[in-house]
Amino acid sequence: MNAAVAVPASGRAPAPRQSLTIAVVNNMPEAARRATVRQFRNLLGAGATEHDVIVKFYREHSRGSAVEEEDVDALFDADADGIIVTGAEPRTARLADDPVRPLVGRLVDWAEDTATPAIWSCLAAHAAVLHLHGIERVKLEQKVSGIFAGEILARRHPVMADIGGTWMMPHSRHNTLPEDVLQMHGYSILVWSEEVGVDLFERRGAAPALFLQSHPEYDADTLQREFQRDLKRFDMGERATPPLPPCHYVGDASWRPAAVTLYRNWFRELAERKSLGLRRAPALGATSPELRGLSDFVPC
């Protein structure tokens, strides 16, 4: 027997919830992998109030990981509606030499080839714009760590809908991207901070790409734990100077409502694109490792 479907007063049956598959490529080191998976799973789950969202996690060289993740090569044959690429701790002075850069370049090209919307986080955002337009990150004199207010410059943008008041987001980074250079290459600044510069920006290519220098996914205590880690590194002689405590940090997650709304809005955009059939299959061999060597990318 078929179950009865409740019909609202309008006389129309409710529209079915659309299913979305989100691929998260986790570039964090092993010690932080489990926390990163939990943070994104919780945030994306909170934002999935209007759609059925399936989140799949990937990483490079997944064998032996303490976290259940598929190898990133499987992503290129997956039917993902959107991709999120996490940052990582910088390991080299030059981003071009960082081990994560070739993978990000490969993912950038795949997202363009398949018209897959993407969100690039922190170091992944830096590596993506380096790959796309040769935009170099700028080393900061002091690490940015804390909760910083941002001015929403594009309130009518779909991903900013219903985000009222002041944008407050956690930042944790040693580098930044110059606003004028981004704009010169056609990037749109959506959120800007007087204290720490560009936060959220966008590029409309084959599919919309969002770039974040902040960390909406962070837990309330993540910045404090990072500070304690860096302090321990100083005590052990692994860094030359002691870290500064996180700025404007009061130990809560006041940014959570805006973070949830940001991803809820992103899911709406993905659902609309999916209903219109805007994603396309990659060309044969377009992402083959044999045809695209992982160390052969040169910024455009």
Key terms:
single chain, 300 residues, alpha/beta, Rossmann fold, ten-stranded mixed β-sheet, 28% helix, globular, disordered C terminus
What number of structural domains do the residues give?
1
Largest sheet descriptor:
10 strands, mixed
What are the low-pLDDT stretches, counting only 5+ consecutive residues below 50?
Answer: 1-10, 284-300
How many DSSP helices? 6
Oligomer: single chain
Describe this structure in words.
The longest helix has 21 residues, at 256-276. The protein has helices at residues 30-47, 101-114, 123-133, 179-184, 222-235, 256-276; strands spanning 19-25, 52-59, 70-71, 82-85, 118-121, 138-152, 167-176, 188-193, 197-204, 208-212. It has six helices and ten strands; from the N terminus they run E-H-E-E-E-H-E-H-E-E-H-E-E-E-H-H. It has a ten-stranded mixed beta sheet with strand order 3-2-1-4-5-10-9-8-6-7. Helix 1 packs across helix 6 and helix 2 (101-114) packs across helix 3. It has a single domain (19-221, 252-276), classed as Rossmann fold, CATH 3.40.50. The model is unreliable at 1-10 and 284-300 (pLDDT under 50). The N and C termini lie far apart (60 Å). Helices cover 28% and strands 23% of the residues.
